[in-house]
Here is the input.
Amino acid sequence: MTIARFAHAALPRFLLALGLGLALASCKSLPNVDPGPPVKSTPTVSTAKGELAPRQASALVNKRWANASADLKSLAVMEEQATGEPLIAGNKVVLLFDGPATMRAMINAAKAATSSINLETYIFDQDPIGLEFADVLIDKQKQGVQVNVMYDAVGALATPAAFFDRMRAAGIHVLAFNPVNPAKARGNWDLNNRNHRKLMVVDGRIAFTGGINISNTYANSSLFRRRQKAAAVEEKKVGWRDTHVQIEGPAVAQLQYSFLDLWVKQEGGELPKAQYFPALAPAGDKMIRVLAASPDGDSDIYKAMVTAISESRKSVHITSAYFVPDQQIVDALVAAARRGVDVRLVLPGVSDHGLIRFAGQAFYDQLLKGGVHVFELQVAVLHAKTAVIDSAWSTIGSANIDRRSFLHNYELNVVVLDPQFGAAMESAFNEDLRDSKEVTLDRWQHRPLSDRVKEWMSRLGEYWI
Here is the structure.
C-alpha cells in the first residue's frame, strides 16, 4: 500500500507533521540506467557452498536456461552490472497467486517453526487474520521459538497499541519502524521513509515475500474470483488481488540477512540468540536475485526493472497496483513496443486511491500512442507488483512502479530468471487479463474533461504519492 494509508487516520497533528516533512525534504531523482554492454560472458552465481567459478557458473546457466527464448545470460550480466547483486542458485520458488492460499501457507509454516520466526510487514491489522497470526506467534514464542516482528508505524497506524503490547508481553520482540512520534524513534528517523516490505522467514529455511500484508483484506480469493464476480457486483464490493512467493534454498539466507540488517539500522536492540542462519542445501533449480532497496541506496529495484524492459525481445507483461512511472520507464516501455515487443500493462480498474490512479492515467496518452497495450482489472482491487519479461525474467515484491517506492520507501523484490517459473507468471498474468478491460486510444481520447483536470492535478504531487 502507499501513502494512501495515511488518510485512514483522523490525526490532524500527524498530517501537519507530514506536510512539514514533505515541504522541508530535499527532492531526489532516479538514476539514469545504462549498464552498458556486458563486461563479462557469465553472471556471478552463488550457491550454498559459495561463489561458483566462471566455468561452473557458465555450465549451470546454460543448462538451466537452455529453453529460454531470450538471452538470459546477457541480461543477467547486465542486471548484475546495474545492481551489483549476484544470482543465487539452488532454490525452490512457489508462486502464491491466491490470497487465502498465501495466508494458509504462511500460518502453517509459522506453526511448524522450531527455532525462529522473523516477520516484517507494512500493515498488521487487528482483524481475524491479524489476530490469528498474533495468536500463532504468541504460541510459538511460548514454545521456545524466538519471534521477532517489525511493522511500519504508519502502515499499522489504525492498529491499537494494545495489539502489539500483547505480543511484547508474551516475549516477542516487536519493533515499530519509524514511529510517527520522533521522540519514540530509534536510528535514522524520517517520517516520509516507510518500510513497505513484506517478509517472513521461518527457521532460516523458508521465506515468504511479495505484496501481501497481514490483513483480512487479502483473505478474499483471487484465483477463483470469477466464480464470485456476480456476487461481488451485486454487493458492490470486491476483494483484493495480490501476489506472493514462497522460497526455500540458499536465497533464504539473503532474505534473512535483509531482515536483520534493517532491524539493526532501526536500532531495534539486540535480538536473542537463535539459529538464524542454518546450513542450507539446494532445494530446487531456480536462480534468484534478491533486491532490498532503501531511500539512501542505489535504486536497485528500479535499475533491474529498467534494464529488463530495455533488453526485452518478445514480451513485457506488467501488473502494477500503483503505476505512476517516471519518464525513463515510459520511454523504455514505448521503445520496446516500437521494436515489436508485446507490451501489456494490467493496471487498476478499481482502486483504493483515486489520486494515484489519476496520476498514472496521465501517462496513458503517451503509452497508447507508443503502442503499449493498457488493461484495467475490473473485479478486484489490484495490489500486485509483478512483471514477467520474455516469459523468463520475473519479479515479485513490494515495490510499486512509482517514485514513492523507488525513492522514499524501504522495498524488497526478488527476481527469478527461469523459463518454467516465467510460464507460471504468464499464466497468472493471463488470468488477470481475462478479467480486465482494454483501454483503447480512441476511447481514451474521448474521456471527460473532468478526468483530464484530475489527471493534471494529480501529476502535481506524483513525487510524493
